[in-house]
Amino acid sequence: xxxxxxxxxxxxxxxxxxxxxxxxxxxxxxxxxxxxxxxxxxxxxxxxxxxxxxxxxxxxxxxxxxxxxxxxxxxxxxxxxxxxxxxxxxxxxxxxxxxxxxxxxxxxxxxxxxxxxxxxxxxxxxxxxxxxxxxxxxxxxxxxxxxxxxxxxxxxxxxxxxxxxxxxxxxxxxxxxxxxxxxxxxxxxxxxxxxxxxxxxxxxxxxxxxxxxxxxxxxxxxxxxxxxxxxxxxxxxxxxxxxxxxxxxxxxxxxx
Length: 256
Known about the structure:
This protein is of the alpha+beta class and 256 residues long. It contains six helices and ten strands; from the N terminus they run αααβββαββααβββββ. It has three domains: 4-91, no CATH class; 94-162, no CATH class; 175-231. Strands 1-3-2-10 form a four-stranded mixed beta sheet. A two-stranded antiparallel sheet has the order 4-5. The longest helix has 11 residues, at 78-88. This is Metalloendopeptidase. Pfam families: Astacin.
């Protein structure tokens, strides 16, 4: 349940007022099992003011509500809040995926000594979702830098400038959420389908249509016309805003 102060934090700022729309609905189908309204007793986020940090637990840690902190520094950073909500539904930073060494190199010499553990190589299930340079869960190329140098270097140099985009969730972010929460399985009966018909990383929406990634077309995303996002990540040039985030602790909290 949100107090009046918590409601003001969530709804009183332009950047945060639309977050539920971004993370709770994709074509009308829910992606996030948290509630943001009074009177709800199930799993939900309890929006709290924090003096210094924006932070969230990674995934659901309580069946009766868990703290989600927003500071004045980030409450108007719409993309950063989307990134933070990614943690809440169970996402880890993209650069910590188990297959990350095929796509990026972590330059540990450029990383602050106090937060060198911020780049673990996780063995968590990637759910067969392709690695995505355009993920909103990627940190900026100079995140946690100790000298202004690059800490996350892409093996494909054409993607170096797009890391840390905060424009919107990528297609693969949405696919991961749908896969983690078995959304397609829940839609098969409604759509009178025996199996998921979407191919090439497409996913079903509530209208029983396949949502296809960039570079694919066709009813079932079965025609590949170009590489996914082809190095542009929504044609967005990311800002230089790249705070040195604090270290997630043993309670699985992550900071923006």
